[in-house]
Amino acid sequence: MRHGAHFIPPPLLSPSPSPTVSASVTAGSQHPMLVSVFLALFLPCAGMSAVFIVYICLLWYATNYRTDNHSGSSSAVKPGAQKGLSVSELEKLPKVTGKELVLGTECAVCLDEIEAEQPARMVPGCNHGFHLQCADTWLSKHSVCPVCRAKLDPQQLLDASHDNDNPC
């Protein structure tokens, strides 16, 4: 110890007083905190739910009224100018077997393998092959190749049934 400095022990802690009126006052002051925590959790959830409901309603509206509105020019749907091939145009496409396909034996329409002896249809120009029924179904609705989206013109079917010009 230095020059007359004495060690003073820390004061003893006394036990806390028993809960009385002051405890009820502090419990009442926690009520606004609970309300604010509840609102902080509830309001964002309610807001996100409202946005989700509006989104679902807009999707429903768009799917139900998009197909019914054929005459409106302000429709968000692409114009129906892309018509498929006729039956006579489909017959002009080359028919081959699975073993004669050049660019693989997987049908991009049904995603199944084309067996060696199965009839297949080859799209002129890009030489992509498909099951006969898959190709006819697709090309009767769309006039493009399902793989590379090369446009099939009726003039191209007349001229180039066996050409190897690859537009891909």
From TrEMBL:
EC number: 2.3.2.27
Keywords: Membrane, Metal-binding, Transmembrane, Transmembrane helix, Zinc, Zinc-finger
Compartments, as annotated in UniProt: Membrane
One Pfam family in the UniProt entry: zf-RING_2
Leader sequence segment: none
Start and end residues of each RING-type domain: 107-149
Chain segments annotated as transmembrane: 33-61
Keyword Isomerase belongs to the record: no
Protein name, as recorded: RING-type E3 ubiquitin transferase
One CC-aspect GO term: membrane
Similarity remark: Belongs to the RING-type zinc finger family. ATL subfamily.
Main location: membrane
InterPro entries given in the database record: Znf_RING, Znf_RING/FYVE/PHD
Enzyme class: transferase
Gene Ontology MF annotations: ubiquitin protein ligase activity; zinc ion binding
Biased composition (Pro residues): 8-18
Catalytic reactions of this protein: S-ubiquitinyl-[E2 ubiquitin-conjugating enzyme]-L-cysteine + [acceptor protein]-L-lysine = [E2 ubiquitin-conjugating enzyme]-L-cysteine + N(6)-ubiquitinyl-[acceptor protein]-L-lysine
Stretch list, region Disordered: 1-21
Organism from which the protein derives: Corchorus olitorius
